[in-house]
Amino acid sequence: MREFAYRLHLVAASRDARVSLRYQPFAAPMLTIRDIRKSFGQTTAVGGLSLDIAAGEVFGLLGPNGAGKSTTIAITTGLLAPDSGSVDILGLGSPADPRVRMHLGLAPQDITLYGELTARENLMFFARLYGIASPRARVDELLAQVELDTRANDRVATFSGGMKRRLNLAAAIVHDPQLVLLDEPTAGVDPQSRNRILELVRTLAAAGKTIVYTTHYMEEAAKLCDRVGIVDHGRMLDVGSVSELIARHGGQSTVTVTRGDADQRVLTSDPVAEIAHQFAAGGVTGVRVERPDLESVFLSLTGRSLRE
Ligand SMILES: Nc1ncnc2c1ncn2[C@@H]1O[C@H](COP(=O)(O)OP(=O)(O)OP(=O)(O)O)[C@@H](O)[C@H]1O
Ligand SMILES: [Mg+2]
User: Fold this and answer.
1) How do residues 78-114 score in pLDDT, each as one tens digit?
2) Using an 8 Å Cβ cutoff, are 246 and 293 in contact?
């Protein structure tokens, strides 16, 4: 409900800003977060987190339940004020300013749609709030993009979880924002909806949008993101491309060599050389390589698994 109110607050507050900001030049960086902190009572949700995101980047925020991802997103979009620290969007200032918020689109973790309205009515409603004069063409384009054009006239209350997620994403970008924040856009959806959502993120990225994407799914982050940040206990443990993080924290590969009935496991940073060495020794009947992945990175940084 908090996010629902926010979407209205974001659009309503942004109407007056629309014309004056449309022609702002978009220079990097897109998003600068400096040492933000937020506590709820005794709970530190975000405990001093900084981040720089360049224009056009697809950035993945990875962390387990309660790591502080949604709180970080809420602060970044101006929904929550941090206890301390600052957020700057596009060099224009804080998202507390409605003119700055016009450049943001948020697909909240908790879906914010009207169940009693149809898919098209939902998007038309949000488009009108943003002051888009003739939204029908834009809305129909989005409905097709999220593959809901055949369900456009059905009430959202009758939709599956995946369909709601797709429409939730469409609602976030109806005003064509530069910075799109997607809080677990693929949580609890089937593989078809997931693929549709991932494709849409790629389309947005290809159009030059900046994407901040939170997820528990490492495979997704590895496929989609230019860089990822690993968050736990409200802190950014490290930031980099997936290959950089694996090189820094992933550890060694495991080569399992089979000779007849016997398996031998060898830890190595150069699995190709190890396999060549084993073959040269002779008698190899099987070989398997396990390379470190983001899960290994997470385990090494936090001492626990990303999904537990
Ligand atoms: N409004 C609130 N009131 C009290 N505690 C809160 C509030 N919002 C967040 N928290 C707490 O702050 C911590 C971080 O929560 P947050 O929702 O940011 O995590 P998250 O990384 O998004 O988790 P998840 O993966 O489950 O969505 C948690 O301990 C949570 O219980
Ligand atoms: Mg969350």
Assistant:
1) 999 999 999 999 999 999 998 899 899 999 999 889 9
2) yes
177 CB within 6 A, ligand 1: no
Ligand nearest to the CA of 41: 1
Residue closest to 52 by CA, chosen among 69, 34, 78, 67: 34
Residue type, 173: I
CB of 49 closer than 6 angstroms to any ligand 1 atom: no
AA identity, residue 307: R
Closest CA to 210 of 118, 302, 103: 103
- Report pLDDT for 25: 44
Residue 215: CB within 6 Å of ligand 1?
Answer: no
Distance, in Å, from the CA atom of 226 to the CA atom of 230, rounded to the nearest integer, reads 14
Sequence length of the chain is 308
CA distance linking residue 79 with residue 100, whole number of Å: 13
DSSP state of 60: E
Bridge partner residues of 181 (DSSP) = 106, 212
**Alpha helix segments (H runs only) across the chain:** 2-14, 17-21, 69-76, 98-101, 119-129, 136-145, 161-172, 191-206, 218-224, 242-249, 271-281, 294-302
Give residue 37 CA to ligand 1 midpoint distance, Å: 13
